[in-house]
Amino acid sequence: MLKLLDKISPTECPKLLHRVVDWICGRSHPKRIEYGATWSLLEWGELISSLTYFFRVAVGRKCSDQELQELLGDLESVRAEAVLQCVRARQEEIRQALVDRTNRICSTQLDDFNWQLKLALSSDKLSSLNTPLLNLCLDLTENGLQRAVNIEMNKEELNTLITALEAANKVILQMK
Amino acid sequence: MEEVDRILIHSLRQAGTDIDEDVQSVKQFSSELIVQAVVRCLRVIDPAVGSGLSPSLPPGMSARFRVGMSLAQACQDLGYKGEIGYQTFLYSNEPEIRSLLMFLVEKLPRESAEVSDQPAGKSALLQKAIAAQIKAQLAMPWLPPSCRLPLHRKTQSPGPCHSFRAQPLSLPYSLKVPAKKQSKEVKEYWREYLLPVTSQPSQAASVPASLLENHVSELSAAQEWENEWNSQGLLSRLTPEDYRSRKRMRLQKRIEEQLRAAAQPRPDTHNATRSTSDLSELLNSFAGATTGGDVLTKGTRFTHSEKFTFTQEPEKAAQQMAAAASALPSSHQSEEDLKAQQEAEFTALQQQLQQLSVQMEEVGGDIRQLTVSIHQVSDELKQREVHNLEKENTIKVKKQTIDLLPDAENNLIKLQSLVEASSKRVVHLASQWEKHRAPLIDEHRRLKELCSNREMESSRKLSEIKDLHDKIRQSAEEAKKKESLYKQLITEYETLPKDVSRSAYTMRILEIVGNIKKQKEEITKILSDTKELQKEINGLTGKLDRTFAVTDELVFKDAKKDESVRKSYKYLAALHENCTQLIQTIEDTGSIMREIRDLEEQIETENGKKTVSNLEKILEDYKAIRQENSALAAKIREG
Predict the structure, then answer these.
(1) Is domain B2-112 in CATH 1.10.150, yes or no?
(2) What highest taxon heads this organism's lineage (chain B) (predicted)?
(3) Which end of chain B is more exposed for a tag (fewer CB within 10 A), N or C?
(4) B188 interaction partners in chain A (CB closer than 8 Å)
(5) SS3 assignment, position B205
(6) Reported ipTM
(7) Can you give the residue ranges of every domain in chain B?
């Protein structure tokens, strides 16, 4: 399927390859609209999936140049060279992405977290409250679905959370 | 006095008194103004007392009198020592009013001064900032969303809607690898194809989040490494690279152990066999990785699973294709036939599949058995080989002895001589060895000592380095603290009211202090002059007395003998008396002059008290009171 790459001009080729690598590393998908004239929808899907497969295998198995040439098959030499260059340039990034993917071994993962510190000045009952509150927002991926969890904590609850996290960190340090 | 008046008027204005711009001194204060000023001051000093008094004078004369009395009472309660009564307010004279107002202004609480003296706490600052912000927002009118300017959008929009989502970024410079060491391809990628960081994330909103995330992760990694290096790395006496590789080895070994413990074969479930075989494969790859050194470890599992899924899929696809192909030609047959055929095919295929899986299992068991037996056999083979070697050696020795047997005696002697020679050689070698050994041992000891010395030195230096690190951290923290304090003070300074009068006051005060100093100097000069004069006068009078006494004696002695001298003695006595009288008169004149001056001053102060106008006022007020009284009496009579 990598043969489809021959349809694009040699100058455009590395750009597309780098965007595909960007996608593997967790950024946005390369846009089909830009290449709509070159490939049909089916071809596009095949090309992207085969390219991602190729990059993952190439970096994950630490293939030598010869093995890479074999994987590329009968691709035109200019494009094959472009693909090889891309692999060499982005090796570290792809490796990091693969490591991250391997680390996601649980059913639920933490994608991102955000926190806001709020100062509650007063409530409907008290004119002067002055209680700090922490709003913790966790972005989770649960079995492939994204879910946001919002927690509001006062000082004691936050302390409990921090002690729990510190205990967990201690366990990890002991593992080291 | 002008200076004092200006300060007084300024502080009275601050206390809330409504003083006109053209009023420049206390002299211009009217009774109304005085009453208002005093009441305002009293209200600030003691709200309980001040709230009972009205700041404006009532029109009725008796009411005015009462107001004056109560004000005087209030001032005396506050501790005013001077003379005070209703007349102070109604028939004012300048010095009294001034002293009263000065007393009241001094009593005014100095909140602002006290507050600015204390170092403002962070919470207080925060509260102040919040209050200021809320006040500003309240002051701003609400606008419908379509009319909002960017200025309003900040405070009146419902807040940022997008959540904090970070995406990994690709940056040309990172802490992990120095830029110079990067390969040519990487540099070309940076130059040609790397997008600017703002267009890398899919949404513009996640640019700051991604940047922050990236920065924090690098920073925390660097910090953690520094901590670890300072606490453990330095003590291990390794280079950073060595330390890293050693740690990696340790971790790999640990993970391997854990996985091995978890992957104990469990034959009870069918599914487990696959996973355990997968895991053992993984472990094998781990073993390879540990011997190979720096090999990607975490990716292996991924690649294996990848291999597994991708090798399975083509087979499936081929099967499906075959099924479809066989189904095609029979399309013209009737549907039932087709169904029956399909069912038959399906069952056949299922059977085949079951057979195949059973076969697979059998073959798998066979393979396992065979691998075990191969292991056993290879072990046996090795043992046999070792055995063989031993036997061959014994055969060689025996063959030689058999060869030597025919000429036994000669050979025996030869052998004995050989043995003796070799024993001699051994002794010789031993003595030589001893000779060599002694200096070598000495050298060894010396080196050992040197080594321990070095070690001590290095540990000392290590502790020094640690101390230095601690110190550096401490001073950095201190610097940070000081900087924040400096910033706080700067902001405080900026928020302070730029009151020009304050600096003007200090300038004036300094000027006044300078003037006072000058005056003091002059006074001391004059005092010393007076003292000198006094001394001179005393000296002169003493001299005069003495001269007179001597002359008197001399002349008196001669006067007994000579008539003309007696006359001159009389003249002398008269002269002396006249002179003393003269001096007396001069002194009297001086004292009278002084009295005159005092009296003049008194006249001036009396003039300053506006006695005449006040008297006229009093007369008028008296008449007014009488009128009021008569009116009241008339009312009573009418009533």
Answers:
(1) no
(2) Eukaryota
(3) C
(4) 85, 89
(5) coil
(6) 0.81
(7) 2-112, 238-322, 335-402, 406-496, 500-608
